[in-house]
Structure formats: C-alpha cells, structure tokens
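Hi all, posting the design record for the shared folder.

TITLE: backbone redesign
STEP: 1 of 1
STRUCTURE INPUT:
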C-alpha cells in the first residue's frame, strides 16, 4: 500500500512563491531578514546562508569539489556579513567579511533556505 505522505510531495516550482519585497539583516540574531511580498518576514541565519553559497568556489563545478563539498565547518569571518546588494530583479549578492563575494542567491534559492514558520500566527492545535 502506498503511504499517504507521498501525496504531500509537491514540487516547489509548482507552488506560488512569494517574491522578496525587501532585505535587511539583524546583527543580534546574525541573520538575513527577508520581507516577502505577501507581507510575511523570515530570517535566515548567516551560517546557513554561507554554507548554502551557490558559487563554484563553495559548491564545486564540473566535478571539482568546492569549499563546502566536504565540510560544514566555517572559519572566522566566513559567516560574518559585510554587505548586501541586489542583482537585477532576481537575486541577492552577499559579501562576507572574509572577502568572499561571488555568491548570487536567486529568489528561489532564498525561498528554499527560509524556514517558512509562521511565528506571527497563533499556533493551531496539531494532533
Ligand atoms: Zn561561494
């Protein structure tokens, strides 16, 4: 018998994804804060963001392993945010304190990294 949980596997791309309205960062919690165009805000910890850097240096290219292909350990400065800049209408370039600046996170990547926990809404009974 097929498990009913399979019914919940809907590819992300088929879902209506909100687009970022604005980007900010929170020094205290060391996280990138994204406000989506549906009005919700979510934060992505800098460490999670850096480990997910989509560039070739971090994740490898054409069979050549990248910085985080074999380790998830961050060195000092690697998860310290230095600057943010928008890339066209589709992405965000994150510049880190160690000088790394080649990672461009598309809106889809950022959406996948965000936790999608509705902190502002009252928790519904779940049993
Ligand atoms: Zn990178």
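Okay, here is what came back for every position:
SEQUENCE:
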């Amino acid at each position: 018998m097929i498990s009913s949980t399979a019914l919940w596997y809907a590819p992300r791309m088929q879902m209506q994804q909100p687009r970022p309205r604005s980007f900010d960062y929170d020094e205290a919690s060391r996280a990138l804060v994204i406000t989506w165009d549906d009005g919700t805000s979510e934060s992505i910890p800098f460490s999670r963001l850096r480990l997910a850097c989509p560039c070739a240096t971090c994740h490898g290219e054409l069979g050549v392993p990248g910085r985080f292909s074999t380790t998830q350990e961050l060195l000092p400065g690697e998860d310290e945010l230095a600057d943010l800049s928008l890339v066209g209408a589709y992405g965000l370039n994150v510049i880190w304190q160690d000088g790394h600046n080649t990672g461009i996170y598309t809106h889809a990547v950022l959406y996948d990294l965000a936790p999608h926990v509705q902190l502002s809404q009252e928790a519904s009974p779940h049993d």
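COMMENT: DSSP finds three helices and six strands in the chain.
Let me know if anyone wants the other runs.
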